[in-house]
Design goal:
13 helices; P-loop_NTPase; SH3-like_dom_sf; 484 residues; 6-stranded antiparallel sheet; 4-stranded antiparallel sheet; Disks large 5; MAGUK_Signaling_Regulators; alpha+beta; elongated; SH3 domain
């Protein structure tokens, strides 16, 4: 189950969240299975042959809105229909070309809601996702549609898509109307096929409170992933000529065998780029491998988030935080348990325990209950867990603020002194061990870091941590879509 950003009810992968503006009327047919949010886009989609349709009810009965099957033999991937709508309200047939093979007494109609395409469920799919599915080559295709003229007339001129993404790269807009953004910016995509143009999205840049700042055009996931794969292939070829075959195979991953008709004119550069898209092997709804964007969801935090401090001198730092701000920070008490290793691991598996440390004759255990007990009192719980346990916290819907202390070298650590919290002088060996351990932590777990503070004396570090905690607690929290 997934946490729905708007309603906090679980939704399967791909289900989107309520839009940050006015998209509130979500179609009742939505079961929030697989899909995303995207506004109405008018896009041509592959056609089908006019011969060989399954017999369907007469025109008069179609108005009742009973689902029906339309089976078509199509000679190629020519586009013959225009789509509108999206994952918020469903994708509809807006119009059919004059020469569309889908025309006919038993064919498709404007106002048909696409329920399935070749047995693939189209509910909650974006307009682009439906379009990509319909591009896949097949001599015979079957559509399950439902004629809903009233709903169609309501949504045909309104946005039908809407989903949140985290940018995984920096982009500077080159043309007028292009949206510039930085890595880790949150964007809200409200059109996945703007004016029928495959390969671009219309998106809003959001501020820390999820409010819309600026709207513009960005490359779609498919176009950017194609570019990243191409770059990777070229790099492979340069590094090792023996990998030429695999590099070529990667390039063919996005190679297109036939051109298709477009409903809007674009410059030749975009046409060339589009013609390299494969119609038979495009990853469908495969966001987990995208190098460009990560689908995310908005999470409402009703209590104060726990804090995990990683890096050198983290223990004296936590002691100082509690001493200086006792009503703000509280250390998580470890529960002493005399049990078998198997029993402790079972508690971890059952999501009762987050982490544990073996002591002589017992275990010191961090439990979910002890964390929630502190956060329920309106205090930031200072965690004492290993970084690998962060994902266990996420699995029980606890999202800590992770702060990493970064020192320049071991010598800087050794020089730190404090009359209260660092009474003992730090040895050269200990400072070197802490520095090397911190390097490994940063290398392996930096993806979990909420903030990084530069090493120095303890009061300086604590001030930085307090500032980060206050800032992060006030921000909207975003988690990957599909995470617990």
């Amino acid at each position: 189950s997934r946490l729905d950003p708007a309603s906090t009810q679980s939704t399967p992968q791909g289900s989107g969240t309520a839009t940050p503006d006015s998209h509130s009327a979500i179609d009742t047919l939505s079961e929030q299975d697989e899909g995303t949010l995207t506004p109405s886009s008018k896009q041509t989609t592959p056609t089908t042959s006019p011969n060989s349709f399954v017999r369907v009810p007469s025109e008069s009965n179609r108005k009742v809105g009973e689902p029906r099957l339309v089976t078509v033999h199509r000679p190629g991937v020519e586009v013959g229909v225009t789509l509108c709508g999206g994952n918020l309200r469903g994708v509809y047939i807006e119009s059919l070309d004059e020469d569309s093979p889908a025309r006919g007494p038993n064919g498709l109609l404007p106002g048909d809601l696409i329920l399935e395409y070749n047995l693939v469920n189209m509910k909650n799919k974006t307009a682009e996702e439906v379009y990509v599915e319909m591009l896949k080559p097949a001599e015979t295709v079957t559509l399950k549609v439902q004629h809903r003229p009233d709903d169609f007339n309501t949504i045909k001129d309104a946005p039908g898509d809407g989903f949140y993404i985290r940018a995984l790269y920096d982009r500077v807009g080159e043309a007028e109307g292009d949206l510039s953004f930085k890595k880790d910016d949150i964007l809200y995509v409200d059109e996945s096929l703007p004016k029928g143009s495959f390969g671009t999205w219309m998106a809003w840049q959001l501020d820390e409170n999820a409010q819309q700042i600026q709207r513009g055009q960005i490359p779609s996931k498919y176009m950017m992933d194609q570019e990243f794969y191409r770059r990777h292939s070229v790099t492979e070829m340069k590094e090792d000529s023996s990998k030429t075959l695999s590099a070529a195979a990667r390039r063919s991953f996005f190679r297109r065998k036939q051109k298709h008709k477009r409903s809007s004119s674009k410059d030749s550069k975009e046409m060339v780029a589009l013609d390299t898209i494969s119609t038979d092997s495009i990853p469908f709804l495969d966001d987990c491998v995208s190098l460009a964007y990560q689908r995310v969801q908005k999470v409402d935090c009703t209590s104060l988030r726990p804090v995990l401090v990683l890096g050198p001198l983290s223990d004296p730092v936590k002691e100082m935080l509690v001493k200086e701000s006792p009503g703000k920070f509280c250390r998580c008490l470890l529960e002493v348990m005399k049990a078998s290793q198997q029993a402790i691991e079972r508690g971890v598996k059952d999501c009762l325990f987050i982490d544990y440390k073996r002591r002589s004759g017992h275990f010191d255990v961090t439990t979910v209950a002890s964390i929630k007990e502190i956060t329920d009192k309106g205090c930031h719980c200072l965690l004492d867990i290993a970084p690998h346990a962060i994902e266990r916290l996420h699995s029980v819907h606890i999202y800590p603020i992770v702060v990493f202390i970064r020192y320049k070298n071991a010598k800087q650590i050794k020089e730190q002194k404090d009359p209260i919290f660092l009474r003992d002088k730090i040895s050269q060996k200990h400072s070197k061990e802490q520095f090397e351990s911190a390097q490994k932590i940063e290398q392996e777990y930096s993806k979990f870091f909420t903030g990084i503070v530069q090493g120095g004396n303890l009061p300086y570090i604590c001030t930085q941590i307090t500032t980060i905690v206050d800032q992060e607690q006030s921000k909207v929290l975003w988690t990957p879509l599909g995470s617990p």
